[in-house]
Specification:
This is PARP catalytic domain-containing protein. 19% of the residues lie in helices and 27% in strands. With 157 residues, the chain is of the alpha+beta class. The protein folds into two domains: 1-32, no CATH class; 43-156, Phosphoenolpyruvate Carboxykinase, domain 3 (Alpha-Beta Complex). The protein has a four-stranded mixed β-sheet, with no helix packed on it. A three-stranded antiparallel β-sheet has the order 1-3-7. Strand 4 (106-110), helix 4 (119-125) and strand 5 (129-133) form a beta-alpha-beta unit. The radius of gyration is 16 Å and the shape is globular. Bound molecules: zinc ion (2 copies). One zinc ion is lined by residues 18, 20-21, 23, 26, 28, 33, 35.
Length: 157
């Protein structure tokens, strides 16, 4: 049986595709991706969030991003780690928000189905954010407080 090079992988396949760094014959699983580990250890990373022009304008003026009313990983602020990955994730299009995210202890989850997660419930587990794996469009970084996000720029597309 062909085995991929990714340590800890239990799938029967010859090559392991890392959805984070896009390596086609990867020696690591996405949760152990060095790109993600670099993001986590620094405690801050840049994220991208696509939204409607109207909402973008609101963010541009207030410089504040607020948690969504719902979501697969709870009421959070959702980001992609690359601009082009927002295309398939976003519910609204037209405006790209670039922001600095403050998160040092992310909980890694596979295809989140945890709509009741809150900042407090995560903090009780020792985390301050979530990284959702398993989507073809790339990982999602989720934080739960406006204070964890600093808006860098808002641009119409
Ligand atoms: Zn594999
Ligand atoms: Zn990787």
């Amino acid at each position: 049986m062909p085995r991929c090079k990714a340590a800890g992988c239990t799938k029967n396949h010859a090559k392991h595709y890392c959805r984070v760094c896009h390596t086609k014959d990867s020696d690591h699983c996405a949760m152990n991706c060095p790109v993600l580990q670099a993001l986590c250890t620094s405690g801050r990373c840049v994220g991208y969030h696509q939204t409607s022009s109207a909402h973008g304008q609101q963010i541009s003026q207030s410089r504040v991003m607020r948690p969504s009313s719902s979501g697969a990983a709870g009421r959070g602020i959702y980001f992609a780690i690359r601009p082009n990955e927002t295309q398939r994730k976003a519910h609204n299009h037209g405006c790209m928000v670039t922001a600095e995210i403050f998160m040092s202890r992310p909980k890694h989850v596979y295809r989140a189905n945890s709509p009741n997660v809150t900042y407090e419930s995560l903090a009780a587990e020792g985390y301050d954010g979530v990284i959702v794996h398993g989507f073809m469009s790339g990982v999602e970084v989720v934080v739960y407080r406006s204070e964890q996000v600093r808006v860098i720029s808002v641009q119409n597309m």
